[in-house]
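[Q] Does anyone have a clean structure-token version of this?
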Amino acid sequence: YQHDASAGVTAAYPTTNLPIEALGGCSFDTGIAANYGKVLGSELVSIGSNYELGAQFDLTRTITWTRADDSFGEDQYLVGEMAVAEVDAMQHNGAGAEGKHIGAYCTNGDGQLWTFVDEQTLHTLYLYTFEQPMVRADMASVMTTYTRLNGYYTYVNEYMLKDVLRD
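[A] Here you go.
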């Protein structure tokens, strides 16, 4: 059973309405991200859920992006560190974490957009924020973007799915 949880668990049950993750990123404090993960994990489990769909580790590239409030910020190192703390705490409470949206996402969900990113930038910036919680906190899964990355929708991008994620 799964729930979205970008600013608290979204459910028909009473849950905590958490501050937006952007505020946590402004603190530069991984303890805040860990506390965020503890609340999400414990609330998911308390309502009978076991999976969270809202750990958003995208990089904020413009303040006009509608999901900027759900991200820890624009710096890949900061977002990676906050992601590790949040995922580790959430999963220690028994809920699986899904990081989203792998593949250089920052487009307000417009699936018709094409994003072109060179290999070094893709790995140094955009994939780093997902690699860290996968390697250091054993993140349960990832969600791809809605857009096309280097010519292919990320959910069918063989390079992204096989070479990067699986291998």
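[Q] Thanks! Anything notable?
[A] The first strand starts at residue 2 and ends at 3.
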